[in-house]
Design goal:
The protein is α/β, with parallel strands linked by helices. It is built from 17 helices and 17 strands. Its cofactor is [4Fe-4S] cluster.
């Protein structure tokens, strides 16, 4: 069976503004590439259409023409919440052209909502809940839908939900993602500006799941279990990217890269003993970043470590990210920098319970940490997150799926007087960070290292200036 896998564009920016998200950071769709590699290993030809890639179709009709050019029997869409409706529009166009083509939707939004989506959206034939590799493989092999675990399907006029599929226990059994399926990879894909020194770059994920239960995190696909690739597998994956594609920097997007300490120590020792000529970034959690491990990461080629902090208000942390304390955050940031690594703080504004006072506490805390970089997401209440169950009681919700991308406020905490005020507070904080003399001094001191980022910045300067104006609190936008 020929299978086409589609990564929809969705709405990845502020409505009414030119989408510059891919200019800033164009990531390979690793979930789809993992599916593609798994299916091809079983003998099924697969094509991948990345609507956020470097050469996207200009219209939905053109995307459908590209997909149909390979005569697929089954078309799969991986959807976030903000990308779901865009994917559905493509499914409708596909059905109009070829009613016999089967469509299957998967991803976090589908896994969170399940069967009601099939009832509301008739152009979808199947929903894949949870991990998709084995479910899609059974469908491609011609199994009866009623026998495929993890599948939601139509039985005449009824919608059936099969038993949930157990997660793949051994991640090392999976092939490396099929990066070669992407038109323009690696040169057309790029990491966030100034987050790397060497180019080209790529991304990896080396684990699935998380044992923690932060209020805002949707675990619909991988649940709370934690599975991971071995150090040997990760090293070979890195070596493959280096030798096959010439990759010089890898961003590892695990939530908890250092949780299983032994594998990280083993991996770092391999990278020290058998260098691959590349650097990497990763994320750590407070409590899993002691001095010896950080120094080992540095020695192995790590450039920057991201740290999920979320808020500078201890009361909000207690509710939304229990087990993380401000004093420990401070000491962790200092240890990271003392080890010679850069540190990027990850924050979130607009959480339930947020007030102007808590936002000021966070802004002051961010400046006091003397971070090398910062990302402030706009809190988005996803359907599979624990906080969704009570979100309507804690403020005003705008359930516009297209805007639920962490780049737009779709929830206004009851402690903030208006949507306009919330946007103003956000923009004021972002401008404060990047205007801080300490941050600018740290940035200038290493600017000479980032020639690849500077080339991108100059090339796409109009888009970046437009984005800056979007976040300017004095702009009328």
């Amino acid at each position: 069976m020929h299978i086409a896998l589609v990564h929809p564009a969705g709405c990845n920016w502020v409505p009414g503004k030119k989408d510059v998200s891919t200019t800033a950071n164009r990531m390979a769709p690793l979930g789809l590439l993992s599916l593609a590699a798994y299916l091809e290993r079983l003998g099924h030809p697969v094509t991948v259409e990345d609507c956020l890639g470097p050469r996207p179709a200009r219209t939905g009709e053109e995307t459908v023409t590209r997909v149909l050019a390979n005569h697929p029997d089954l078309v799969g869409f991986s959807t976030t919440t903000s990308g779901f409706l865009d994917a559905y529009d493509l499914a409708v166009l596909l059905k109009q052209n070829h009613p016999d083509i089967r469509t299957v939707f998967g991803g976090v939004h589908v896994s969170a909502l399940g069967a009601p989506l099939l009832e509301r959206f008739p152009a979808i034939d199947y929903l894949c809940l949870g991990e998709g590799e084995q479910t899609l493989a059974e469908l491609a092999a011609g199994a009866s839908p009623g026998t495929v675990t993890g599948l939601v399907w139509r039985d005449d006029s009824a919608v059936r939900t099969n038993d949930r599929r157990e997660p793949i226990p051994e991640l090392d059994s999976l092939p490396f993602p099929a990066y070669e399926k992407l038109v323009g990879f690696p040169g057309g894909y790029h990491l966030p500006l100034f987050s790397y020194v060497q180019a080209p770059g790529a991304t990896m994920v080396t684990s699935r799941g998380c044992p923690y239960q932060c209020s805002y995190c949707d675990r619909s696909v991988f649940k709370r279990g934690y599975r991971f690739n071995s150090a040997e597998y990760i090293y070979e994956h890195m070596r493959y990217l280096r030798t096959r594609f010439g990759i010089r920097h890898i961003n590892i997007y695990d939530d908890l890269f250092t949780l299983q300490r032994q594998r990280i120590e083993s991996l770092c020792q391999m990278l020290v003993d058998r260098p691959l000529g590349l650097q990497f970034n990763c994320a750590v959690r407070v409590g899993h970043a002691d001095e010896s491990l950080l120094k080992l990461l540095k020695h192995a080629g790590c450039l920057m470590v991201s740290l999920g902090i979320e808020s500078g208000d201890p009361n909000l942390l207690e509710v939304h990210k229990p087990g993380v304390y401000l004093d420990e955050v401070r000491s962790t940031v200092k240890r990271i920098q003392d080890s010679g690594l850069r540190v990027k703080g990850l924050f979130m504004m607009g959480l339930p319970g947020e007030t102007e006072e808590s936002i000021k506490k966070t802004s002051d805390f961010v400046i006091s940490l003397e971070l090398d970089d910062m990302n402030m997401a706009k809190f988005t209440p996803f359907h599979g997150a624990p906080v969704w169950q009570t979100i309507a009681e804690q403020g005003e919700v705008d359930e516009d799926w297209r805007k639920m991308n962490c780049l737009n406020f779709v929830f206004r905490p009851s402690g903030i007087e208006s949507w306009e005020r919330l946007d103003h507070l956000y923009n004021t904080h972002v401008k404060r960070f990047y205007s801080d003399p300490g941050w600018r001094r740290r940035f200038r001191s290493r600017l000479w290292q980032h020639r690849h980022s500077l080339v991108r910045l100059v090339r796409d300067l109009p888009d970046f200036l437009s984005a800056m104006r979007t976040f300017d609190p004095t702009s009328n936008r």
